[in-house]
Amino acid sequence: MASKTLSDPVKGFTEITAQEKSLALPHFTAEDAFEIGVLIRNRLREISENPAVVNITLANNKQLLFHAASRPGTVPENDNWVARKRNFVLRFGWSTWAGHNLFDMGDEERFKARFQLGETAGDYAIHGGGFPVRVQNVEGPVGAIVVSGLAQEEDHQVIVESLQAFLNSTH
């Protein structure tokens, strides 16, 4: 039975982006992506009976490194959310939770206007659950981790806590 809870996510754009940078990895390989993906999937199973998708890709060509459902019951719409969250992370270099907090807790119209997205606005999501993969001493994200299926705060926080666990295990 799922029961272990997540911490509350950091709020405020500056605090969130600082946290993202603090979770930079010493390296990022396909093996690392697999380990991180399994950590996230297992943590999702601890915290919720609801299904979610975990997706990890490289930034340069969106090469898929990891994709799994936490439980039976995910639907194609989860993958649409994965794509929209990943697009945001790879275009702006921040987590979707940072974007959500920057734009008045998810004001989609303000976000759309600020970046003159027009008809392409639907390609991006400012709902928590998309996170940049950063590597120490490398400029910009090298990949994106996306979780879709739970509340956006949980989608975001499960990535944060799993990355911290991965970093703790590599030191």
TrEMBL record:
GO CC terms, sorted: TRC complex
Q: Which InterPro entries match?
A: PduO/GlcC-like (IPR005624), PduO/GlcC-like_sf (IPR038084), YBR137W-like (IPR010371)
Q: Name one GO biological process term.
A: post-translational protein targeting to endoplasmic reticulum membrane
Domain of life assignment:
Eukaryota
Q: Which Pfam families match?
A: HbpS-like (PF03928)
**Protein name per UniProt:** Uncharacterized protein
